[in-house]
Structures are given as structure tokens and as C-alpha cells.
Amino acid sequence: MLTDAVDEAIHGGSGVLLIISYHFSRGDRNRGCAGFDCDVAAALAHAHEIRRQAESIFGRDHRHVYPLVCGFETDSDALIVHGIDDATLDIGALQPSQEGELERRIASLCPDMPGDIRRDLLPLLKGNLQHVDSLRGITRELDIEHREWVICVGRGFDFLHLPNTALIVGPYSPDLSQPISTAAAIIDANMKAERVPDDGFLLLASTPYEAIGVDRARAELKSRFLSEFAAQVIAREHPRLVAGMISRTAVVHWPSRRLELLDHV
Fold first, then answer.
1. Superfamily of domain 150-261
2. What strand order describes the sheet that includes 150-154?
3. What phi and psi values does residue 21 have, to the nearest 5 degrees?
4. DSSP letters spanning 40-51
5. How far apart are CA 103 and CA 126, in angstroms?
6. What does the pLDDT look like over 224-263, one tens digit per residue?
């Protein structure tokens, strides 16, 4: 589905900026990515590996698709843009008066980035600079430890806006068992640490569709497969969680983003 969306954009004459992100906390290592045991170096290495995979699919010349690795520092909400030769641009280290320098800095950091894609990136960086500056001097309760109790498998989870509630496993890996097992391990750890109740968790599988008929039937079939596959992985790798697993399968009408639950069969 990701390659289909990129191909559609390319055929429409648009360049594509593909942001590959990881997150970490400078104030507390435990607020980092639990999927990598809060190891920022491991998370960054994985992001670079995804970048290499994108280059092998879409080309290393970056003419049509530019895969960009960006860190997200959760204490300040600042983006860290990674460029050539391990150079970085930390938006949190800039002042608002330096906004006019962003285009030059990005051109230097990523000299192979096409001009149209760079222009699309700039509003994001400018907005992040303004946001980071608005938080300076403000005491925030960084209640951002992992408290997830939902595992989502598939696509169509745009409605999930509550932070630290759901772990989303997209259907982009040839082996989904590892990220599903990692997500279950995080929920298991949350229960053991009493960050969430240990009375159960939700497994939700979803696939988008465009039109009634064959397309929706395909989405139903895929969602049921993802739900059954995820349940099998969890039962094998984390059997103690199975008793409290509430499984739901759905499809999403993509034009309206309407979530439609399917009956169990």
C-alpha cells in the first residue's frame, strides 16, 4: 500500500518526501522507544536501515522519492534532521530569528534533495521551530511513559490521537511476527509495571478500501488474515496475554475514514 501511494504521487508528477522517524528523550532514557528498549542508537540504526530499503525500491538518486531520517526529541518536541556524513540539524538548538536560515541549512545538510521537496519540507521545520520556541520556559508534566493497551495491525488508524494508547504495526514488513511480538511485550511490561490494568488489552486489525464490492471484500479478507496471524503470534510468544485479549476486526472506508467492525466468523 505504501509503494502504491508513492507510485501514484510519482505518476501524478509530484516528488515524494518520505519521513522516517524515531523518538527519544534527553531528560529520561525510559521515555525513549520501548520497541528498542529505549536505546536511541538502535532506533536510529533501524531508521537508517529503512532509508536504505526505500532507496533500493525507489532509487538512490532521490529524484522522485527522498527518504529523510528525522529524530523527535519528546521533551522539547524538537525535530532533528539527519543529512549526509552523519550531519544533523537540531531544530531545538535554533532561535526564531534563525528561521530564514532553514532553507540554506537544509540545502547544505541534504544537497541531493530536489528543490520542490525541500520547499515542501520547510513549512514543517518552520512550524516546529515556532512550536519549540513557544514551549521554552514552560513547565510541562512529561507524562509520556508507555501506557499502551491496544495493538493495531494494518492501516486506517488515523482516529487514534491519544498519545501512548496504541501500538500500530503497519503491513510494510515481510515478517510481521517480530513487530507484533514486540508490541505484545511492551503491553506485557506495562501490565507488570502497573502502568495499565492487567485485566486485558485490545487487538484491532484494519484494512482500508475505496469502493463497495471486490475492493471491500479484499479488505475484509486481509483484515481477517491480519487478526488471525497476530493472535497466533501473541499466543505463541506471550501466552499469558491470551486470556485477556479482546480481538476486533474492521475495515475502513478510506474516502470517509469510517471504521466498520466485522462480525466474527
1. Carboxysome Shell Carbonic Anhydrase, C-terminal domain (3.30.1330.140)
2. 166-169, 150-154, 201-209, 245-253, 258-261
3. -115, 155
4. HHHHHHHHHHHH
5. 10
6. 999 999 999 999 999 999 999 999 999 999 999 999 999 8
What 8-state DSSP symbol labels residue 258?
A: E
The mean pLDDT value for 10-16 works out to 65
- The Cα 10–Cα 64 span in angstroms is 7
Going from N- to C-terminal start, the domains of the chain cover 2-135, 150-261
Return the CA Rg of the chain: 20
Q: Distances from the Cα of 128 to the Cαs of 49, 122, 135, 142, 204, in angstroms?
A: 25, 10, 11, 18, 32
DSSP string, 224-256: HHHHHHHHHHHHHH-GGGGGGEEEEEEEEETTT
Residues 6+ apart with CB under 8 A from 12: none
What the block records as the C-alpha cell of 22 is: 524515531
Question: pLDDT, tens digit, for every residue of 119-169?
Answer: 999 999 999 999 999 988 877 665 556 688 999 999 988 877 677 788 889
Mean pLDDT to the nearest integer, 69-73: 94
Q: What is the Cα–Cα distance from 152 to 166, expressed in whole angstroms?
A: 7
Q: Cβ(233)–Cβ(181) under 8 Å?
A: yes
For residue range 20-58, list pLDDT tens digits in order: 999 898 888 877 777 787 889 999 999 999 999 889 888
